[in-house]
């Protein structure tokens, strides 16, 4: 099986409170997209194989800059890797679609990863790939939910009523990279294309699109290091964990 990775890095980064687009926001002096790409290209499946095509979706005005940033990462990879940098869409779903359109014909396993999870360790990437190769057409990493979760109803200015306490044992918080049989993922995106361009209706992750087609999604153990960098606080935490000090 030939592995490709679609790395979504087209977000604005506005919630980070940073003047730079998220893809090129630095942590420990290195842009988020570079950290994420390095983890993807370092990972090795049980048979020793790794990603041979990396497709990155980036802001349209940063395509050349992102390609230049990732060139050395690709050169340092342990295998020959094809790099494609393409413009992202209005939503994450549209961006993944744009990435899928760049895949070469020989690819049959696709990883979809967010640059906003820059420190997903290579072992996590390999765990997802190995599960797809074991016969699971859609695989997501997940962490147990540690907080009590309650389903709430419509309320008023004072608050919202609790309808149900959801058993935590049945819940996981899903991360990326998510791994898929290529045909399954492309079919799911084709079916869900009608809502791809609207942030209110677009899928928040690719596994949700696959679920909607009736294909079972498998969960493998996630990793706390694959935390998402969304807010300014997340950025400070990532900086502290990486360097041992504040940004």
* Text of the CATH class: Alpha Beta
Average of pLDDT:
90
Domain count: 1
Q: Helix/strand/pairing class, anyone?
A: alpha/beta
Head-to-tail CA distance between termini: 41 Å
Strand content: 15-25%
Q: What overall geometry do the principal axes of the alpha carbons give?
A: globular
CATH architecture: Alpha-Beta Complex
Number of strands: 12
Question: What is the CATH superfamily classification?
Answer: Spore Coat Polysaccharide Biosynthesis Protein SpsA, Chain A
Largest sheet: 8 strands, mixed
Please report the number of helical segments. Answer: 7
The H-and-E topology, N to C, reads as EEEHEHEHEHEEEEEHHEH
State the gist of this model.
The chain has helices spanning 32-42, 63-75, 92-100, 122-133, 182-191, 206-212, 232-243; strands at 3-8, 26-27, 30-31, 51-58, 82-87, 109-114, 138-144, 149-152, 162-166, 172-174, 178-181, 218-221. With 247 residues, it is α/β, with parallel strands linked by helices.
Secondary structure layout plus pairing:
Layout: E1 3-8, E2 26-27, E3 30-31, H1 32-42, E4 51-58, H2 63-75, E5 82-87, H3 92-100, E6 109-114, H4 122-133, E7 138-144, E8 149-152, E9 162-166, E10 172-174, E11 178-181, H5 182-191, H6 206-212, E12 218-221, H7 232-243
Parallel strand pairs: 1-4, 1-6, 4-5, 7-12
Antiparallel strand pairs: 2-3, 6-11, 7-10, 7-11, 8-9
Helix pairs in contact: 1-2, 5-6
């Amino acid at each position: 099986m030939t592995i490709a990775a679609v790395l979504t890095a087209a977000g604005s980064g506005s919630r980070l409170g940073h003047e730079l687009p998220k893809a090129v926001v630095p942590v420990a002096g290195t842009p988020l997209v570079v950290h994420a790409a390095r983890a993807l290209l370092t990972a090795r499946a049980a048979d020793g194989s790794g990603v041979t095509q990396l497709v990155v979706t980036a802001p349209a005005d940063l395509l050349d800059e992102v390609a230049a940033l990732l060139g050395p990462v690709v050169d340092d990879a342990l295998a020959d890797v094809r790099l494609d940098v393409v413009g992202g869409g209005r939503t994450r779903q549209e961006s993944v679609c744009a990435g899928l359109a760049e895949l070469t014909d020989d690819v049959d396993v696709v990883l979809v990863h967010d640059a906003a999870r820059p420190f997903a360790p290579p072992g996590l990437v390999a765990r997802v790939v190995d599960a797809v190769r074991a016969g699971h057409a859609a695989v997501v990493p997940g962490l147990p939910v540690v907080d009590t979760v309650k389903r709430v109803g419509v309320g008023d200015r004072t608050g919202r009523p609790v309808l149900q306490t959801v058993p935590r044992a049945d819940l996981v918080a899903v991360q990326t990279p998510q791994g898929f049989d290529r045909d399954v993922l492309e079919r799911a995106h084709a079916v869900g294309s009608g809502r791809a361009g609207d942030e209110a209706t677009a899928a928040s992750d690719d596994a949700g699109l696959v679920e909607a087609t009736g294909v079972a999604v498998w969960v493998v153990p996630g990793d706390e290091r694959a935390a998402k960098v969304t807010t300014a606080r997340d950025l400070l935490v990532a900086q502290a964990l990486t360097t041992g000090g504040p940004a």
